[in-house]
Amino acid sequence: MSINKYHLLADYLSKRMRMSHVYQPVMIMKLLSNQGKAKADEIALDLVQNDLSQLEYYTERVNQMVGKVLRNNQIVLKEKNEYQLIGFEELTNIERAKLIELCAVKIDEYKEKRGMMIWDHRRKNRSPIDGSIRYQVLNRANNVCELCGISSEIRALEVDHIVPKNWKGADDLSNYQALCYKCNTNKRDTDDTDFRNRVHLFEMRDTTCAFCSSNKEVVFDHPLAFVIKDKFEVTKGHHLVIPKRHFANYFELKSAELLAINSLINQIRDKLLLEDRSIEGFNIGINQGVIAGQTIMHAHVHIIPRRKDDVSNPRGGIRNIIPGKGDY
After folding, report:
1. Which of 117, 152, 212, 249 qualifies as a FRET site for 14, CA 20 to 30 Å off?
2. Residues 217-235, mean pLDDT to the nearest whole number
3. Is the dihedral of CA 104, 109, 110, 116 positive or negative?
């Protein structure tokens, strides 16, 4: 019986096992090393390696993926939350050691074949996000997933590229968002097609558009937006923040463009305050639609510096676009 069980497992590992990941040999090796039994979260710890924050993720992978495959192949049994390697007690110590070695060989073969790609479902970029950048992204998101809204206290959050690295997404704060691991995993499966189109979407230009063909000096530049001085400035230092993609409606802005514009607004604000100490405030606004005063049908944001006594009564600010509505 012992020899048969050894050959059965060796045959499965060597010939019959179809691997879409390293999960199966990792799980078998764990069971072989742990008296033939292990709880799902114990197996998950081996899968997750050192990333304990993803324990829930890998426990789900054990139960829904690798555990199910190994049960269907009659390699393991599951009772409640515990898995058992079928026939473990029939194996000698030498046979267990050989099978563990065979598991390790299969894992190494797979890693050599696929390299870092085996972790692509867990990491969207090939290099880790710097700790200070991660802090800024999570702080900006108030430590909640920016897709489903779940708190980091309930589910671990990851820093995700809005425009994926595979499609030339920038390693920049304006292209990062905080997603829980479930949303991040699901995003990869559901947004591939959209993101392929997204790259071409960002490249849309209109040669007849004053902003698309602008030869004015760019003050700040970003892959998705830029800043120029307003040709007809309302106050000294009046600038425009303009997405590079040609479209008229501000409400069509994609999240990456919104982050880019917000980043540029902060950059031009800091520059203006450094250069002109008379500036004490700003009006930031958008004219959306002809009826609202939009004259160039390419979305853009005005940033207008304000100084003391530049108008007799500043009360109401942008409310003054309708006469008599500012002073209330």
Report:
1. 117
2. 92
3. positive
Does residue 65 sit in the same domain as residue 163?
no
- How far, in Å, CA of 45 to CA of 124, rounded? 21
Q: Give the range of the structural domain holding residue 175, as residue numbers without chain letter.
A: 131-191
Angle at CA 204, nearest 5°, toward 186 and 302?
Answer: 95
Please indicate, yes or no, whether residues 16 and 113 belong to a single structural domain of this protein: yes
- β-pair type (176-180, 225-229): unpaired
Side chain identity at residue 16, one-letter code: R
pLDDT score of 196: 37
Task: Clarify whether residues 56 and 93 are in a common domain.
Answer: yes
* Cβ atoms 160, 178 nearer than 8 A: yes
- Split at pLDDT 50, 70, 90, the class of 1 is very low
Task: Give the end of a domain, one of 72, 91, 118.
Answer: 118
Q: What's the pLDDT at 85? A: 96
Using CA atoms, how far apart are residues 309 and 151, in angstroms rounded to an integer? 45
Q: How many other CB atoms sit within 10 Å of the CB of residue 282?
A: 19
CA proximity to 70, closest of 57, 83, 54: 83
Q: Percent helix, strand, coil in the chain (nearest 5)?
A: 45, 15, 40
Instruction: Quick: pLDDT tens for 231-274.
Output: 999 999 999 999 999 999 999 887 768 878 998 999 999 999 99
Domain boundary among 172, 191, 210: 191
> CA of 126: how far to CAs of 117, 118, 119, 129, 227, in Å?
9, 11, 9, 9, 31
- The DSSP bridge partners found for residue 176 are 161
| Of residues 56 and 244, more confidently modeled | 244
Residue 39 in any domain: the answer is: yes
Measured CA to CA, the distance from residue 287 to residue 292 in angstroms comes to 6
| Conformational region of residue 282, where left means phi above 0, alpha means psi within -120 to 50, and beta covers everything else | beta
If asked whether residues 30 and 107 sit together in one domain, one would say yes
> Which segment of 66-70, 103-107, 323-327 scores lowest on mean pLDDT?
323-327
Residues 58-85: tens digit of each pLDDT: 787 788 889 999 999 999 999 988 999 9
